[in-house]
């Protein structure tokens, strides 16, 4: 049903209030002329196609085309929850989409109230995904998307003339788990037959002294969603209602976790009922025995009952291991941990403790931005401790350091060989990253060579020097471990390390008693030898990234992109038209789109540019090639410079 309030009336009220302010110096206030900001012509895009741009570009993308969007405002900053965030959805039920416009304007609801039909002139704006939410805004040095300056807001955002405010459509769900999908982010949804488990007649929306709160909403099946409230909301001190009803909210996301916001307290249609009893859960929760489970049993957003034994990651983080070695980190819902009794905390951090956890499978982003598999529990009652102990290790366990078995070549294997706590022997070229020795696997996975108490363990100074040398070939024996998401080989003895000394260990030939007075010089290399880095045995991209010592060598890889500007931030992949003639990116995989896994190749002259650049020869995209050049930094990243010779591989 349409709201009888009209934008025409709204404009009139605005000008009346503007007249009352006319005696004040408002030269710098930048107040818009609403007559000049209303439009009537049609838009040329809905929100969904522009969202797809984010999937096609890494980082942010400037919209250079004349893209005009049409939609309805569904957020309001009046209540204090949406500060300089204008949420717009295109209202084409049931498959409407939404987007967030980041704008440095306070009190935007005075100009663009809920239900106002608006047009967004997107040309010149930046679009990007910021912590899980697709946003429109401007370039910013600190964030993927910055706020549109106040004086520019009304150049990009205009409302339709003489249009009534409409009640925005909302998708309706009784099952919260079905509402939690990326296509619903930045749109209105209405959850029915839900309640607040924390409601007890005293709980407020934001506890005293807190900057914000996450208030759990629960459905009859036990699925939950956090309702996020800033301490600035007008209802912060209101008591959370007991009872069951409906809540209309805007779905959002923070990294991998869904959350939601309301515009005003009136969005909650639950009457307080002191006699309310939470419903008995009817959802059939799958029970998983960790020892019999494998990676395929991990399904995002699925609620399960997981039984197993606590294993500590690096003596610190609690986890449960599946039978195939898949590690599931155990996580308390945000804000819960500090409220749990110490006895509980001690038990869940005890190696070998039997435990059954009712929780939801989710991805969890660590501080270093690595993503791990996790199970999230929401209350102390979701965790049951048992009395059994973890199965004993075999009576004749494998030695800490394997002395037999296959030696894995780092440049030929992928991260799939990594099995936590499994013994391993590996050979490869050292790559120093943040002053630590690493192997680079063929899929560009960084595998740290971790040596506890380094100086005490490695007593030979020559060994220490070699372990700090880029490109040094070494074979290590150890155990796969992980710390804060960083994959490692843990090496506990100097005897578990051997260096490739083939270049120096071959004895010098005995003196020739009848030397030739004028020996014939060796012929120049034609590339037919089999030495590493030769044309017949080129370095892989991973090896080239590790060996940045200005060695002249042949490299093999696939052409996957280029850098169109002055920084690796300007890297481009999977383009219809390409922006650079002076460089290309090569990678181990033809489908690579991560600049960190690419070698940047300089094309120094017109000859190489005409033959290799994607701007000149777009058909070279995804072709396999060998190139000869100097392994040295380019764009401050691993590179290949001075390329003069190259050969496509059929």
From TrEMBL:
Residues 500-536 are annotated as: Disordered. Keywords: Signal. Residues 43-268 form the DUF5689 domain. Pfam families: DUF5689, DUF6359. Residues 508-524 have a biased composition (Pro residues). Residues 1-22 form the signal peptide. Residues 539-648 form the Endonuclease YhcR N-terminal domain. It comes from the Bacteria. The keyword Nucleus does not apply. The keyword Signal applies. This is Uncharacterized protein. It comes from Ornithobacterium rhinotracheale (strain ATCC 51463 / DSM 15997 / CCUG 23171 / CIP 104009 / LMG 9086).
